[in-house]
Amino acid sequence: MTPILGLLIGLSALAAWIYLTAGRGRFWRMAERDDRAEPAPPGTWPSVAAVVPARNEADVIAASIGGLLAQDYAGAFRVILVDDNSEDGTAAVAQGVAQGAAGSGARLEILRGAPLEPGWTGKLFAMRQGLARASAADPPPDYILFTDADIAHSPDNLTRLVARAEAGGLVLTSLMAELSQRAWFEKLMIPAFVFFFDMLYPFPWAKDPARREAAAAGGCMLVRREALEAAGGVEAIRGEIIDDCAMGALLKRQGPIWLGLTHRARSLRPYDSLGDIGRMISRSAYAQLGYSPLKLIGTVLGLALVFLAPPVLALFASGGAAFCGLAAWVLMTLAFQPMLRFYGRSPLWGPLLPLIAALYLTFTFRSALDHWAGRGGMWKGRAQANAGAQAGAGAA
User: Fold this and answer.
1) What is the pTM of this model?
2) Enclosing H/E stretch for 21
3) Is 197 exposed, middle or buried (0-12, 13-18, 19+ CB in 10 A)?
4) What is the CATH number of domain 31-272?
5) Residue 179: is its pLDDT beyond 60?
6) CA angle 352-355-361, nearest 5°?
């Protein structure tokens, strides 16, 4: 590499980090979180129905359903578990939890899911069935809480969600559930996962009605039912693999939305190996790029410039190139600190962000390879990228 080329790369990387830290909604501050600016409770608590799509979740469903049944919500509240053709006794475990929940077990209804229809991803098809069941009530609920079967909720989570939604007139209120961080590779990868998500979909921009950007986190989404119906229902996004962000974009056209960090919703699913985390990332990475080889190439070059070039220049170049590389590396390390603090991680993880980005780049390649091999979006035995293609063909 010539000194001039090294300097140009260093200047480009530094310019990118100046933009990311100063111009992209200042996403790195992690200011959108549910433990700040607590809203006042509404005068009357609206009715809520939780819809829980579940497929082979017997290992986590007890804690998930138990947490929902234990909500201290003052308004009308019910839980609909949609058992998506599970083969591991998921419904039986959930029923056992309801029977043991004194006074709150009657809140739970278990709906056996219909066979998956073409053009749908499994989760969205289950969500549609649960929504239809909830909406058939007289009167129908004011809000739908879409939550995953592997999410545990603190007893006050629903109350806080509804209070925020009512105070802000929100059509979608979503929380980024706290993911498992027990093993060292989870501590390495998970805070960065949320950091990258927030960088891609800045939470401050998602809530800004003047901006097009929208996002949500599928583990916990409180939706105003009438707004979802006006937007075309779950059918409008039936083939989307990144269903939560699709839901955010769909509902932002109906009114204000909000997405924030939380410790009140927690994932029960551990990642037993780095490969498990890789599969979680690979499931949707290529879908995020619209299955475009050109976007894949652009992403590789962009990640290399923004995350990999700074430490390489700082360690191996000289002069202006080394200075620019070091400055960019320092900026990314500092930008990562608020996320590390939120998840209780040491600030010393910060300089490792380029290494983490390299792993994410590898998993993105794997996502493309899986798609080309017909295994795109694989989850619970279903290659869900195929559903998106079918949905697109049906719309055409």
Assistant:
1) 0.91
2) helix 3-22
3) middle
4) 3.90.550.10
5) yes
6) 140
Under DSSP, the state recorded for 33 is B
Mean of per-residue pLDDT scores for the chain = 91
Count CB atoms within 10 A of the CB of residue 280.
18
CA 270 – CA 131 distance, rounded (Å) = 28
3-state helix, strand, coil in the chain (%, to 5): 55, 15, 30
pLDDT tens digits for 258-268? 999 999 999 99
Contact 89, 96 (CB under 8 A): no
- Kindly report, residue by residue over 54-68, the tens digit of the pLDDT: 999 999 999 999 999
Query: In angstroms, what CA-CA distances link 186 with 183, 189, 294, 307?
Result: 5, 5, 31, 20
What is the Cα–Cα distance from 358 to 350, expressed in whole angstroms?
Answer: 14
CA distance 272 to 47: 38
Give the integer Cα–Cα distance in Å for 99 and 318.
Answer: 69
Q: Which strand (E) or helix (H) includes residue 387?
A: helix 385-395
What residue ranges do the domains of the chain occupy? 3-28+277-381, 31-272
Three-state secondary structure call for residue 159: helix
* E strand map for 107-150: 108-112, 143-147
The Cα 158–Cα 264 span in angstroms is: 10
Residue with structure tokens 């239809």?
132
Band (380; pLDDT cuts 50, 70, 90) = low
How far is CA 123 from each of CA 128, 198, 237, 251, rounded to the nearest angstrom? Answer: 9, 23, 11, 18
Report phi then psi at 72, rounded to 5. Answer: -90, 25
Q: Which residue has the tokens 């053009």?
A: 119
Q: Indicate the burial class of 113 (C-beta count within 10 angstroms; 0-12, 13-18, 19 or more).
A: buried
> What size, in residues, is the chain?
396
Task: Specify whether the CB–CB gap between 174 and 315 falls below 8 A.
Answer: no
Question: What are the tokens at 18?
Answer: 């100046």
Instruction: Tell which wins on pLDDT, 393 or 337.
Output: 337
Q: What angle do CA 63, 34, 351 make, to 5 degrees?
A: 90
Q: How many C-beta neighbours within 10 Å does residue 279 have?
A: 17
Which pLDDT score is estimated for 385?
Answer: 56
CA 164 – CA 222 distance, rounded (Å): 10
